[in-house]
Amino acid sequence: MPTLTPTLALKNYRSCRGMEGDAFSCTLYLNGKRAALVEYRGDGGAYWYDWSPSSKTNMHGGPMHDLFKAYVDALPEVPPSDAYPYPLKRTMDCMIEAAVETMLANKQLRKWCKSNKALVYRTPGMSGTDWFITRVSNTVRHRAVVLKKHPDAEFGNDRFWAPPKAA
Fold first, then answer.
1. 70 and 134, same domain (yes or no)
2. 155 lies in some domain
3. Residue 61's pLDDT is what?
């Protein structure tokens, strides 16, 4: 059986405050095709999916649902941690939540790097959404200071700007 790795994209993201956190709606795209409208009401309940093409129910809907479900089911369990002493099975809701967090983190990173006047970096031990934001501009000299202390630092500025050139 071939490995299922669909490309997942979220578009038309809208959010507001809910009873227990942020509520949101967005459109889920799998492999570039519209797959579902996803809604979370921010009340601590489950996510709601309206699959495309629509079927008899809103919870299960044709080939896009089957592709996403098969992909999520093939992922390994989350290993035990201090918060959960047992392994956790991944769900479609968890995958959507992770995609939303990644999308929002990238949006924030783009905002920080917008003017290229702040040097934004992270070290290998940091999570995918954590960054250091400095009050110095993105110059070769300032990068050298960071690289001296953290030789394998990743610069967020490089995602949106060409690295500065030495004068």
1. no
2. yes
3. 64
Q: How many domains does the chain have?
A: 2
Per DSSP, helices labelled H in the chain are 62-74, 92-112, 140-149
Do both 66 and 137 map to the same domain? no
Specify the pLDDT at position 55: 46
User: Is 126 part of any domain?
Assistant: yes
DSSP state, residue 131 = -
**Residue 136 near residue 108, CB atoms below 8 Å:** no
At 167 the pLDDT is 56
Cut 0.90: pTM above it: no
**Tokens 């990644």 — which residue?**
102
Tell me how far apart the alpha carbons of residues 92 and 95 are, in angstroms, rounded to a whole number.
5
**Residue range(s) defining the domain that contains residue 98:** 8-104
* DSSP, res 39: E
pLDDT of 164 higher than 60: yes
Question: What confidence score (pLDDT) does residue 46 get?
Answer: 87
Q: Does any domain span residue 3?
A: no
